Amino acid sequence: MEKLFPKMQIINENGEWTDETYRSEITEELTKELYTKMLRSRLFDRKGVNLQRQGRIGTYVPFEGQEASQIGSALAMGEGDWMFPTYRDHAATMTFGHSLKTLFLYWKGRQEGCVPPAGKNIFPPAVPIASQLLHATGTAWAEKLKGTDRASIVYFGDGATSEGDFHEGLNFASVFNVPVVFFNQNNGFAISVPIEKQMKSKTIAQKAVAYEMEGIRLDGNDVFAVYFHTRTAVERARKGEGPTLIEALTWRYGAHTTADDPSKYRDQNESAMRREKTDPLLRLERFMKNESMWDEKWAEDLEASLTAEIEEAVKEMEEMPAPHYNDMFDHVFAQNPWPIDSQKEAYAHSRGDR
Amino acid sequence: MTTLVDTKKLTMVQAVTDGMRVMMKEHENVIVLGEDVGQNGGVFRATDGLVAEFGDQRVIDTPLAESGIIGTSIGLAMNGFKPIAEMQFLGFIYPGFNQIMTHASRIRARTLGSFTVPMVIRAPFGAGVRAPEIHSDSVESLFTGMPGMKVVVPSNPYDAKGMLISAIEDPDPVLFLEPMRCYRSTKMDVPDGKYNVPLGKAARLQEGEDVSIFAYGAMIDVVTKAAKTAEEKGIKCDVIDLRTLYPLDKDMIAESVQKTGRAVIVHEAPGTGGLGETILSLINDTSFLHMRAPVERVTGFDTPVPMFALEDHYLPSAERVVQAIEKVTQF
Ligand SMILES: Cc1ncc(C[n+]2csc(CCOP(=O)(O)OP(=O)(O)O)c2C)c(N)n1
Ligand SMILES: [Mg+2]
Fold first, then answer.
1. How far apart are CA B245 and CA B30, in angstroms?
2. Where in the sequence is the domain holding A261, given as residue range(s)?
3. Which of A11, B80, B231, B233 has its CA 20 to 30 A from that of A82?
């Protein structure tokens, strides 16, 4: 099966070409854009972990190591397309248009963190594993019925492939030939459970075969491979050629969440080793150096300006006035039915607010 | 000759582990399965050490699928095993709901007792620990309203171990709910070895003649504080920890309200469809003419549990309970 679904790559760990198909498109401009987005998300992620440690936000879900998978794929999507992230996909959603402030608000336990930017079809992070695959299929199906050329992309992990909703999502998309890209980040673990315990299948991509759909497997730490192959899948979807299942092989360096202790179930030296060898940012840096695109001063200035942007977002998040309890009552229905209204009134009364 | 039982100071989550350990030692057919229950010891460490002690044939990391966990546990239970299936959070039981509703709860009835499902489903639940979305759901009444399921909620380490042992020994499926807020809030002397706290029996935590208070799980701490404040105001509360939500301890509920004539029911689940309504109808059926005031309920609202920045507003507070106590006494 690994032979049937070879790991596609464009540049290797040393930043050298392994596939030159897209050489003419890999300009300095695109490369720097990708690097900028990856560094931005990495600095954001480290800030998230720190804010949690300082008690300034709640549990946080780090994604460091998975930047290339998320950013390469998100950049392949267009205006008006739909995005369905999990709790670990802020690099994808910030690339597609979420503000950093909104992302921080989510982990501060605020409902505003679920609100999409105006005009952007970004679903709130799916917490129940695999449930979002069906929504992505549904919104893409609607686009097809409406006759547009828009598509959906949905993110999910290796563990998610065990849920019934994963299979139902793929089957519906296949049966109704829906323009959706199923983007799997195979980071090798579902919390503590390694993929060998999750499935006997040697690849996730092969699961596409059962649904008679295109399945591909790629190096998820090679941002070019992710970008160009996802773009091809989206183009196929737009043309009515059906859904694709993409398996991006990647790794999370850190804990599953800030409430998790990975040393309980895996050797963290592996993460340290991968950080040296297969890191998506380091790889791009090596590539840029090989191609004479790297400029130390540019990189330093970039880090400084991104850090300032993130600090500003933290400030905005923290300066936001506390939410009012009415927010909890007033958005359950278009119009509050009487039980909610009477509970709301009784609550205000109990606090002496009315 | 007196035998002194050895005890250990345990938190609730440790008591749960100990309950499983005792039963696994005693019965080869008791097995534990769920997501991350093996090497990781569960996300709350409720199965900590069990895989080392009993091996990975009896403490099983399953694929990530609640319907799979519950559905295969039904088969295991029908064929000689006593599965203890862990849901990582009650808010993630929904993919398994179909299996519980259409099979676990009714296989005995469908086969006139030929097949039975002696299994336990454990699940942490409830708000108040700043957990992310969906993790804080309190949906016990989805299951108390499900014919064929027993539903229990301990509020302290001693009860947790004794009730878990009773649940494992029970011939029918039991949903064993573990309030996250109580997991590590207190330590208590818990006897080593096996003992039972019977299912279907409530516990009186405090004797009083003025107002009956009915609560369970994490709300026990809230009502205990409220009862203390009420006492300072000269109101004596009869505080009842329901412990088993189905079947309710009808006798203790009736006996208490027939003494006090007043009742306050507290739960964090939404008011509509919540257990408070069942208790109210029980009071109506058994004790209507003894009542001196309409029963008050202090509950969560008919809203999804909000994200944690607002969860303290959602959860019943001791202040709201005190107000309800005053209302029934001043009626
Ligand atoms: C239905 C459901 N069951 C359990 C959980 C608890 N849970 C959260 S993340 C996770 C592991 C997910 O692993 P994977 O799909 O590989 O994604 P990753 O976290 O590695 O990105 C689990 C079991 C959940 N969120 N939803
Ligand atoms: Mg994973």
1. 24
2. 7-323
3. A11
In angstroms, how far is the first alpha carbon of chain B from the final one? 54
Out of B40, B272, B310, name the one closest to residue A192 (CB).
B40
Q: Do A108 and B271 touch (CB under 8 A)?
A: no
Put simply, whether the predicted model's pTM sits higher than 0.80 gets the answer: yes
CA of A331 vs chain B CAs: smallest distance (Å): 9
Do A268 and A353 fall into the same domain? Answer: no
Examine the domain organization and report whether A337 and A241 are in the same domain.
Answer: no
CB < 8 Å from B in window 317-346 of A? 322-323, 325, 327-329, 332, 337, 339-340, 343-344
Count of domains observed in chain A: 2
Distance, CA A198 to ligand 1 centroid (Å)? Answer: 12
CATH number of the domain that A235 lies in? Answer: 3.40.50.970
For chain B, say whether A210 makes contact (Cβ under 8 Å).
no
Which letter does DSSP use for residue A17 in this model?
B
Q: Domains plus CATH for chain B?
A: 8-191 (3.40.50.970), 203-330 (3.40.50.920)
Predicted confidence band of residue B4 (pLDDT cuts 50, 70, 90): confident
DSSP A121-173: EEPPPB-STTTHHHHHHHHHHHHHHHT----EEEEEETGGGGSHHHHHHHHHH
User: H-helix or E-strand containing B244?
Assistant: strand B244-246
- Written as six digits, the tokens of B88 are 């990582």
Query: CB of B86 within 8 Å of any CB in chain A?
Result: no
For residues A184 and A271, membership in a common domain is answered with yes
A181 with A288, same domain: the answer is yes
Instruction: Enter the tokens of residue B290.
Output: 């003894």
Which residues of chain A from 171 to 190 reach within 8 Å of chain B, CB to CB?
190
The verdict on residue A274 lying in a domain is yes
Residues A274 and A344 in one domain: no
A307 shares a domain with A334: no
Chain B (308-327) residues lying within 8 Å, Cβ to Cβ, of chain A: 308-311, 313-314, 319-320, 323
Does any domain span residue A1? no
Whether residues A104 and A229 share a domain: the answer is yes
Q: Which of B95, B131, B303 sits opposite A340 (nearest CB)?
A: B303
pLDDT confidence of residue B3: 65
**From the CB of residue A29, how many other CB atoms can be counted at a distance below 10 Å?**
9
**What number does the ligand 1 atom closest to the CA of A129 have?**
26
Q: Which residues of A touch B298 (CB under 8 A)?
A: none
Mean predicted lDDT score pLDDT of chain B: 97
Is the per-residue pLDDT at B1 higher than 60?
A: no
- Alpha carbons A340 and B295: distance in angstroms, whole number: 20
Task: Tell me which of A191, A250, A252 to substitute to probe ligand 1's pocket, judged by most ligand atoms within 8 Å of the beta carbon.
Answer: A191
Q: Please tell me what DSSP assigns to residue A321.
A: P
Say what the pLDDT of residue B5 is.
87
Q: What are the backbone angles phi and psi of residue B302, rounded to the nearest 5°?
A: -80, 50
B62 lines ligand 1 (CB under 6 A): no
Query: B179 has which bridge partners?
Result: B125
* Model pLDDT, residue A1: 87
Q: Are both A260 and A346 inside the same structural domain?
A: no
Give the environment of ion ligand 2: residues with CB less than 5 A: A 157-158, 187, 190
Q: Is A181 a member of any domain?
A: yes
Residue A88, in any domain of the structure:
yes
> Using CA atoms, how far apart are residues B190 and A312, in angstroms rounded to an integer?
51
Averaged pLDDT for residues B188-205: 98
- Hey, are the CB atoms on A109 and B311 less than 8 Å from each other? yes
Q: What would the DSSP string read from start to end of B73-112?
A: HHHHHHTT-EEEEEPS-GGG-GGGHHHIIIIITTHHHHTT
Determine whether the shortest distance from the Cβ of A191 to ligand 1 is under 6 A.
yes
